[in-house]
Amino acid sequence: MNRRITAVSLNTFRDYFFTPAAIILLIILSLTPFLCSNLLGDGTAEGKFRVFVTYSFIIGSIIFTAINIAISCSSISNEWKKKTLLILDVKPIKRWEIIAGKWVGMLLINIVFITFFVLAISFSSLLISRQLIENFPEDINIFTTETELFPLAESANSGQTAQDKVKPSDFMSFLSQSSKNIRGMYVIPAGGRMDWTFKGIRLPADLQTNPSTDNFDNVYLSYRFQTSSPDRQSALGYWLAGNPSLLAPFEMQTDLAKDQVHRLPIPAQAISSEGELNITYLNIDPSNISVLFPGSDFKILYPQGNYWINLLKGTVNILILSTFIFSVGLCFSCIVSHLTAILSTSILIFTSYMYEFIQIIRISILQEMQAQQEIGLIQRISYPLLNFLSSILPPLNEALPHSYIGTFILMPSSYLIFLFIRIIILGALPLLIVAVIYLSHRELGIPNE
Amino acid sequence: MEELVKLQGVTKTFKDFWGKPKAVAIKNLSFSVERGEILGLLGPNGSGKSTTLKLMLGLLYPTRGRISVFGKHPGDNIAKQFIGYLPEEDYLYSYLNGRETLDFYGKIFSLPSKARRERIDFLIDLLGIKAYQRRSVGEYSKGMARRIGLAQALINDPELLILDEPTNGMDPIGIKEMKDLFLDLKSKGKTMVISTHLLSDIETICDRVGILYQGEFIAMDRVDKLLLPYHNESHCLEKFFLDKVYAEREKREEKRKTEFSKEKAVPAKKPDEVDQEVIRKLLHKE
């Protein structure tokens, strides 16, 4: 960005931000989520959450809409009215640079407001999550990214919920999780076995040096599987985990439902000091079926880093993401056109729906493959393509799986993104209109009537 | 000599919303400003001085004719790099202080930060605004704001200074200082176009003077040549200006009257065509 645009943008920021009205609005905006987190709703966990989200965002959106419309309308017209534009226009600055500077200034103000609002939302989400965990321990399972509370997750929600119950004490460890994936697709015929080796799992020092049964829940194998029989809804299997040079410290027989995400706790001592973990699956199902593990859903979840630093990182990530999407939306709507902004929003929605659609096709192909026991050419070609597409498209329903606190923070944040794109369109449109009028108004020196 | 500004047959007509001509501000104006010269534009209110300056800056576009500034179209960004402009009023950002105002305009000229700081310090010393450089511009008196306005016009060390009533609202000391500053700038070879009402100011500074009346030059020449008949008198530019303007006004008034009478004149009736009836009635009444 050149110096002229920076100068104009900072000037605009200075003009609007350091005013009593802006400071009061900022305080109201920051307090709104905290006030809304005290509302009770209809007495259920979901009701409380919905009331919190709805009220915070309605008030937030009203304030944001007002700010954006006011600034975008008055930033150029005030210069025109006060004739400061006369001096500015005879300086070596292009008119588009003035408009771009005004827009960037508006963006800066929005970024500050959004930062405060997102921080307030995130912290009040944290508060409300703790309240809900204490007050509604039974209802807590609805708060995953896979339930319909999460925007756009309805299409992805095919009834699956987390299989293993998560204790409130485990929340801390979930938030500081890292994951290791494997690639490919693994078919295990009846009576067969499959070995996987995960490398580079670096556990925290205290877990590594002092593995004990207390830390049993810290490492998980997360997986989803399919079976070759459409009638069989579950498969009987036997898991072995551990360093091959040692005795297998973990073995478990499972009979779990297919096409659902499961998490198997693995003891920390199963992981060698080099960070290696061997997993073996034995297909011992009596009904002679093959089991298929898609690599994209087969991962090891393990704790890494400090909880608070991870929380900070997560919050900053969400902040950056929301700011980025906000600025992209604003940029499109302001510079290119109103229609492009709608398009960019639609693209976001479309791609996530596309992801779900591709998942459905992928799974149907998978089932077909299992049923026929042999893979056709079209399926052979299309399956990796669908896999690739599903890896590049935004999988909104899978962000931070099973991490309730993460979900608590992510859910309002994603509401925020959808909401602000709408506000941005509203807010940037007047600026665009004013800018167009200004640009077409070629003669700035015309005397006032 | 190099011509920095050149106007050829420039006419400017202001139009209303529907595109109908509302007022003719400038009529067929042609002149040029040479490098190192100071041109004074004089004229009564509404004579088109400010319009001429705005045309030179590209703030207005001529209805007819051609303008070139530094050999380029007015409004060209390269030409703007060498121009400093002081408008007739102080159109400054009221929330910035004096120093920040200059810093802002310095950034618009893309001056590097060190050079910008030095230039601002220099201008603050030059114009004597050190005492109130940290106060916001909104609190300034008119004279103070005028100085900041002039400082922003000088921020890029311009070759061509376009000043619209620079001493407007200043006290006599300020006017004296301003005049000294203009003479100093003149000695440095700067080119200036000054529009003003205060004739005594301009007399000692300007090389050439043009007197505008209703958008036309009624006199345009070197100051010494114009004032040759008045050389023994004091305030001779003022006298010359008043003489010229009054003479022009009378001339135009005369012209207007004759045109009006030509339009309105109706051929008189012959005596025999006069209504005899009316005469009889009048006589009878008496």
Q: How are the secondary structure elements laid out?
A:
The complex is a heterodimer of chains A (449) and B (286).
Chain A: H1 3-17, H2 20-36, H3 45-82, H4 84-89, H5 95-135, H6 171-175, E1 177-181, E2 185-188, E3 193-198, H7 205-209, E4 219-223, E5 226-227, E6 234-242, E7 250-257, E8 262-266, E9 277-283, E10 291-294, E11 299-303, H8 307-336, H9 338-372, H10 377-392, H11 404-440
Antiparallel strand pairs in A: 1-11, 2-10, 3-9, 4-8, 4-11, 5-10, 6-7, 6-9
Helix pairs in contact in A: 1-5, 2-3, 2-5, 3-5, 3-11, 5-8, 5-11, 8-9, 8-11, 9-10, 9-11
Chain B: E1 3-15, E2 21-34, E3 38-42, H1 49-57, E4 64-69, H2 77-80, E5 83-86, H3 98-108, H4 113-126, H5 142-153, E6 160-164, H6 172-187, E7 191-195, H7 199-205, E8 208-213, E9 216-222, H8 223-226, H9 236-264, H10 276-285
Parallel strand pairs in B: 3-7, 3-8, 5-6, 6-7
Antiparallel strand pairs in B: 1-2, 1-4, 8-9
Summarize, please.
The complex is a heterodimer of chains A (449) and B (286). Chain A is of the alpha+beta class and 449 residues long.
Core attributes:
heterodimer; A: 449 residues; alpha+beta; Jelly Rolls; 2 domains; elongated; B: 286 residues; alpha/beta; Rossmann fold; 6-stranded mixed β-sheet; 3-stranded antiparallel β-sheet; 10 helices
Overall helicity of chain B: 40-55%
Kindly identify the CATH topology of the largest domain in chain B.
Rossmann fold
What's the total helix number of chain B? Answer: 10
Cα radius of gyration of chain B in angstroms: 25 Å
Q: Could you give the distance between the termini of chain B?
A: 82 Å
Number of strands of chain B: 9
Structural class of chain A: alpha+beta
Under the CATH scheme, the architecture of the largest domain in chain B is 3-Layer(aba) Sandwich
Unreliable spans of chain B are none
Which term fits the overall shape of chain A?
elongated
Extended strand count of chain A: 11
Give the overall pLDDT of chain A as a whole number: 70
Which structural category do the helix and sheet elements of chain B fall into?
Answer: alpha/beta
| Average pLDDT reading of chain B | 85
What top-tier CATH class of the largest domain in chain B fits best? Alpha Beta
Low-pLDDT segments, ≥5 res of chain A = 145-175, 333-345, 396-407
For the sheet with most strands of chain A, the description reads: 4 strands, antiparallel
Side by side, the strands of the main sheet of chain B go 5-6-7-3-8-9
| Beta content of chain A | 5-15%
Query: What does the oligomeric state look like here?
Result: heterodimer
